[in-house]
Design goal:
Helix content is 25%, strand content 20%. The protein contains 6 helices and 12 strands.
Length: 235
């Protein structure tokens, strides 16, 4: 199912014009995804090539990026990443800059896939949002809530989960689903049109937590294609 072009005109998505607006905008009136669209200067592909990252996720530090033998365009790209990193640190967040060269998925033992490449919502025990920016490679994808259904609410899947659980469909079962993160994963409905977060755009999306006034934003990491690495900021 290919993602639609960025960004769709939808009441759940609000586009802002600056970082300060991205910080201060509220999740309300159904809006659960905020985007600051940008065209960043620099050669991000050169950064990827010079990193020579191995399989899995490589966490990038300022020293690592500044030590790369980059051209002027590559240095612009590295500086853009570090500027975003510092913005979020100054905002009191704990961001990470990553080079993604595939994911090490845990072996799935149930009928619901629970890795980051599955449609899911983030959850938290306190009021916190998810921040994302893809600098290079395939970007994160989003799914409008009305175009998705929780996998635990699909009758066939729920029946499989109940069989695995071995009990009744009651409060204890719902707690069991929550402990295993099954209730955070979604399936697209037949008419769904996923959308791409796009390259260079900084997003702030709603998570599931007590007091959140809107549904959490449903999203996923793109499927990995061997040889195609991503540069990603996440908090």
């Amino acid at each position: 199912m290919p993602a639609s072009s960025f960004p769709p005109n939808h009441p759940r998505i609000r586009v802002v014009g600056a970082f300060d607006e991205l910080v201060t905008a509220r999740f309300e009136s159904g809006v659960n995804a905020l985007c600051w669209p940008r065209v960043l200067e620099g050669d991000f592909e050169e950064v990827v090539m010079k990193l020579k990252a191995g399989p899995g996720i490589t966490h990038l530090t300022e020293d690592m990026l500044r030590a790369l033998p980059l051209s002027a365009a590559g240095r612009l790209a590295a500086a853009a990443m570090l500027d975003d990193y510092q913005r979020l640190v100054d905002h009191g967040l704990q961001p990470a800059l990553d080079c993604v060269n595939g994911y090490e998925h845990a072996e799935e033992t149930g009928p619901v896939r629970t890795d980051v490449c599955s449609w899911h919502a983030d959850s938290a025990t306190a009021e916190v949002d998810t921040w994302l920016c893809t600098y290079h490679g395939a970007s994160t994808e989003g799914l409008i809530n009305e175009e998705a259904i929780r996998r635990v609410d699909v009758p066939e899947t729920r029946a499989e989960l109940l069989k695995l659980y071995g009990g009744a469909d009651d409060g204890d079962f719902r707690e069991w689903l929550n402990e295993r993160f099954y209730d955070l994963h979604y399936a697209p409905l037949p008419h769904a049109r996923p959308y791409a977060f796009g390259a260079g755009n900084l997003w702030r999306i709603a998570t599931l937590h007590d007091g959140c006034a809107v549904p959490p934003c449903v999203h996923r990491a793109p499927g990995f294609v061997p040889g195609q690495k991503r540069l990603l900021l996440i908090s």
